[in-house]
């Protein structure tokens, strides 16, 4: 009975048993994720909100002085929030064009042989741990940035020199890190554009490049937007790599300032913080959580819009 | 029957997953590193032959000491506390020493409200803490070294110069007799024991203008070593030749100078108790006897600190 039961010729009883068991397993697995999300949400809300009311919502979100250990502590995270927004936006501005062009190259232009070299490289890029990006940033990017900084701010007495650990370094590392996400999803989107659209365009006399920019990319728009949103999510949630290259001082996000992101603010101070300081770090976590939730909601509505459009 | 089997397997799988998740969250007690084990070996080896006075007085108690000692406190003291608890537990197998590292303030708080026997603090106790009956037992002294990159021509700083660098008044090495090169001021994140000790010793609390706030000693060393014109502070015991160490007021940061009190950037490691050590239980007394013994001093030296007496 045992070996036979796995075949479709098996007895009816054991077959339905397996069916049921599988259903149970799937249901449990499904709820494991729900449970995780629900408990994380509840935990973030309960541990992040007390400090908001103790310090004052406006003082935390719009205060610009971060001195958690001072005699009169100040917990303003405005610059930290701005840094995360500006840093992520710049990373998208740099990373997305490169990523989409790479996807166009892979999907439309590249000869098969060349694509077979580029694609594994992109996949490898996705697999590199973020701490490695950070180390490379420290060893290569920061010294280069410092040279640039010395050149630009030569003789300046007001600029605080950061040794190359600044917003630009962080943005470049982030841009590099979102490339694989953007490339892979955009390429899939470009490949799923029906071939008859290309044929029609070419038949009307458009060149290959015209076809790509006027027909294929617009047709793959919703997929490319998905790629951008997922890239944003990756960039805003990244901590390890940028904590190594950004200098981690709380400053207004200007290119040559040492800056602190939402993620690095939590990472760098969590280990020693206590009391209200720790609660505020949880609040920073909550802010980050809200940002990521917003991005997800945006993603979902975009996908839905895309799907509706395709249905019409 | 098969259905049941699968159900059981699923249940077991879920149980394993949950256990794993729980275990992942609860591992911040005593950790062993190679360095500490080495320290343990050397101290027990040297201690087994000779009988010091401290060892002699506690010798008769060795057999019947039972129970546990809890210590809570400074993360800067983690190395010392872990090495101490390990060697002590080997000497008194009946006693368990539990060490947690949550910060100096939290440690003193724990000993004040009776949550732990010993509160570790990497600073002198505050008056308000002492007024609650907490006794400051200094067991070791830690020195903070100020380091720069090896190519820097400046090799001595006065206290005022150091303060001026860290509060942002002096921004170029040429003002201090060095090359025309901006100063990159590197420090630790707020909450760090080294940072609070450094700022406290220089009376620079919340007045430092850091361009980099790094979250570990190793990161500070790496950044200082690789950035021309940088300056950073680290514990004495992590110094190596990748960085250049400043003399402060013409005094080298050596254990001798720190003990003599001529090097101003140093701080005590305190194991605070509620009431005098003599009024503590036998386990805690034995621990203090041990750390003040010659064997204990060797242990303190082996983790890069300077014995207190």
Describe the structure.
The complex is a heterodimer of chains A (312) and B (309). With 312 residues, chain A is an all-alpha fold. Chain A has helices at 12-55, 57-62, 78-109, 112-127, 130-152, 167-191, 195-203, 208-219, 221-237, 240-245, 262-269, 275-311, and strands at 66-67, 74-75. In chain A, a hairpin with a 6-residue loop joins β1 and β2. In chain A, α1 (12-55) crosses α12 (275-311) and α5 (130-152) packs across α6 (167-191). Chain A is globular and about 70 Å long. The mean pLDDT of chain A is 88. By secondary structure, chain B is of the alpha/beta class. In chain B, the strands form two sheets. In chain B, strands 1, 2, 3, 4, 5, 7, 8, 9, 10, 12 and 13 form an eleven-stranded mixed beta sheet that branches. In chain B, strands 6-11 form a two-stranded parallel ribbon. The longest helix of chain B is centred in the N-terminal third of the chain and has 24 residues, at 2-25. Chain B is elongated, with a radius of gyration of 23 Å. The termini of chain B are far apart. Residues 16-61 of chain B have low confidence and may be disordered.
